[in-house]
Amino acid sequence: MEALVIHGAGDLRVETLADEAPGPGQLGVRVRCGGICGSDLHYVQHGGFGTVRVTQPMVLGHEVAGVVDAVGAGVDPARVGQRVWLYLAAFGNPYGTAAEYSVVPQERAVPLPDGVDFDLGANLGVPALTAHRCLYADGPVDGRTVLVAGGAGAVGHFAIELARAAGATVIATVSSPEKAALATAAGAHHVVNYRSGDPAGRIRAAAPDGVDRIVEVALADNLALDVAVAAPHASIVTYAADAKQPTLTVRDLMTRNLVLRFMMLYTVPPDALARAVADVSAALAAGSLTPLPAHRFTLGDAARAHDAVQGGAVGKVLIDV
After folding, report:
1. Chain-centre distance for alpha carbon 124
2. Which CATH code of 3.40.140.10, 3.10.450.50, 3.90.180.10, 3.30.420.130 fits the domain covering 127-266?
3. Is the pLDDT of residue 152 over 70?
4. Stated pTM of the model
5. Whole-angstrom Cα distance, residue 139 to residue 133?
6. Beta bridge partners of 215
C-alpha cells in the first residue's frame, strides 16, 4: 500500500508498505477518503502533539472513511464489508489513515449509515467529536444559547449542527461574508462578523441574558469578548492553542462564576468519548450533519494538503485514496 509516513518533525514521506494484518481486537479498513486536521500539522511540525510523540515511523492521519475488509481475533466477522468512519486512528497506533489501508482497534471504526457518503465520513473523526465534547462537557445544551467562535471551521461547523439538532439557539462568529454563508448554511440562528462594528453588542442583542456555552478556537484573541457576552455560570470551552497566551481577567470570571475549560480529544474521558461517538452516529443517521466544502488532494500531494490546512483553507482538506 501507499502511505504517508512521518519519521519525526519535518520528515514526512510517501512510502510503499505491506498491508498489515489486524491483530486481536483490531480490524483492517480499505481507505476511500481521509481528512487532514490540525493535530496532523502538530505531528509534522513538532514531532507530536502535546505529550503524544512520534517515537517510531508511523502512518499519519486520524480521520477516514472506508470499508472493513479484514478482522482480527475477537472481532465479529460480520463486520467485513461494513462501511465505517474512523476516529483517532493514529493515537497510540502506528497505522494512521493517510494510506490505502489502516489497522485500528475495532471501537475506533464506527458504522457509516447507509446513504451517508465517504466524504462526510472523512470529515468526522476529530472535528465532530471535538465539537461534541465542547458542547456537552458541562451538561445538556437544549434550550440553551451557544456561541460558536469560528463557525466556518471544521469544529465550528459541527458544533453548530450538533447544537442546533439538540435544540439550542446558536450564535456563530466569523471573519468574512464567505464564512458567514457557511455558518448560516450549517444552521446558525445568528451570525456575527467579529471584525466589524460592535460584535459584543450584536451578540448581546441576539442573547440579552448572555450565552450559556462558548465553543472557543482562539482563546487569547477572544477571551475578552467571551467574558463580555457570557451569562452567569456559563462555560467557555477551548479546544485549540497557539503561541499567544491569554490574559485572564480573574475577577470578571469569578464575579459570574464562569467555567474556563480546556479540552484535548486524546484525553477525553472514555465514557464521554463513547457518548460523543454515539451522538454523532445518531446525528448522521438523522441527516443532521453535512460535509464542509472539500479541498481534494492525492497522497502524492500530501505536502500541498498540509500547506492548505496551515494556510487556513475554508472547508475540509481531504485526501482521496
Report:
1. 6
2. 3.90.180.10
3. yes
4. 0.93
5. 10
6. 148, 237
